[in-house]
Amino acid sequence: MELTKRLEWRGRQIAWGRAGAGPAVVFCHGTPFSSLLWRPFAQALSRDFTVHLWDMPGYGRSSKQEGHPVDFGVQADAFAALLAHWGLERPHVIAHDFGGAVSLRTHLNLGVDYASLMLVDVVAIPPSGSPFFRFVQDHPNVLGKLPGYIHTAIVRAYIQGASHRGLRDEDLDALVQPWTGQDGQSAFYRQIADYDERFLQENEQQLGRLDIPVRIVWGARDAWISPDVARRLQSLIPAAELSLIDDAGHLVHHDAPVPLMDEIRTWLPSG
């Protein structure tokens, strides 16, 4: 399932793809990832659903121009525009990491309705950010000028740390590739520099208003965002369900793909 289509939006190009037939399911990725994480799941679901993948501006195959903000607010606006472009009124939304905050803001602040929302190891409420993340925020311009081979080694180590079981070389290469080269390296540090926890605070204050079905799925060994955050998130969302996946870290897609797919299949409507 390739992202062969482009939406021109506010001077940006948003890469997206669609496949299958049936109820609409939209996947949202996080940082520092892309829709690549969701591709196998989307392909498998396309037999029964119309699945949609997209790369947020500044990520993956979407444009990465310097000077274009990539914060939560911009991404929520982009998501709303994309859903309107697709003509989707109440899709099922499945979000990971940063995509959780984006999908929540799109619903809570922009009034875009969903049929349901699944939140997988999401960035959604404060506090957030690893020591590395905060270091980058303090030195974005310096790190953007690192020699390419050093930058690539840093990104590889960073992404590898999101997996509890460890990533295969070919999977790690695919996740790192969008952040290599001059444009990719600059974009990697820019998206961290643009990270603003204020949007998470706004989300947290509004979670009690959620009146759609919400399921929270979390890797029980997530070293990036503790399962304690998942429990607190569940307590803030009325009637939210929570499921922890054993022996999986933040990249549950690679650590436990079968249990994750089972969670998705069980959550989505049948027939």
TrEMBL record:
GO annotation terms (biological process): acylglycerol catabolic process
GO cellular component labels: membrane
Organism: Spongiactinospora gelatinilytica
Amino-acid biosynthesis found in the keyword field: no
Record GO terms (molecular function): monoacylglycerol lipase activity
Pfam annotation, one family: Abhydrolase_6
Keywords: Hydrolase
Limits of the AB hydrolase-1 domain: 25-259
Xref: SUPFAM superfamilies: alpha/beta-Hydrolases (SSF53474)
Name of this protein: Alpha/beta hydrolase
